[in-house]
Specification:
Strand order of the largest sheet: 1-2-7-6-5-4-3
Order of helices and strands: EEHEEEEEH
Helix content: 10-25%
Strand content: 35-45%
Radius of gyration: 16 Å
Length: 158
């Protein structure tokens, strides 16, 4: 499950099976009973042999080829960010656009979404940070959740 990237469909071929879910989370220190601090669109995809690495190559190309795209009344800008140390390989990119108020007017702030795809063998997991009620999650949270996702997939694959 990836955001729209100018119509590209990275990794669409070679898929054997995929599951997608929404996962709310709380930051460390959030009091019990508070609303979640953020939400992920989380997917796990199993690819035919050799296609998982190709899917990440296609994703890198799609982000590079779609540096800017219209999203409603505003433009979203996409940019690859450094990402290493997650699984066999990983891709991290941001989607950045003006934050809109309830009347669809820019507030002067920006909404930033981080998306990390992690490959472990023939499996790719994607964590697409969604924020909560207009918030953006810190990169440190996405990094920590990415490490947990890698551990979970490695345990599952044993």
């Amino acid at each position: 499950m990836l955001p729209a990237l100018c119509g590209a469909e990275p990794g669409a071929s070679g898929t054997v099976r995929q599951r997608v879910r929404s996962v709310p989370f709380k930051l460390a220190g959030t009091p019990e009973g508070n609303i979640p601090d953020g939400l992920y669109r989380h997917s796990i995809t199993i690819y035919r042999d050799g296609r998982a690495a190709a899917a990440l190559d296609e994703l890198r190309d799609a982000v590079r080829d779609c540096a800017e795209q219209p999203v409603g009344k505003v433009k979203s800008r996409q940019k690859l960010l450094p990402s290493s140390g997650y699984g066999d390989e990983s891709v991290l990119f941001e989607m950045r656009k003006p934050f809109l108020d309830v009347n669809d007017q820019p507030t002067g702030d920006e909404e930033v979404r981080l998306i990390r795809a992690i490959r472990i063998g023939n499996v790719v997991t994607v964590l697409w940070e969604q924020g909560w009620e207009g918030s953006s999650s810190p990169k440190s949270q996405v990094d920590a959740d990415s490490r947990r996702a890698v551990l979970a997939i490695r345990n599952w694959l044993r």
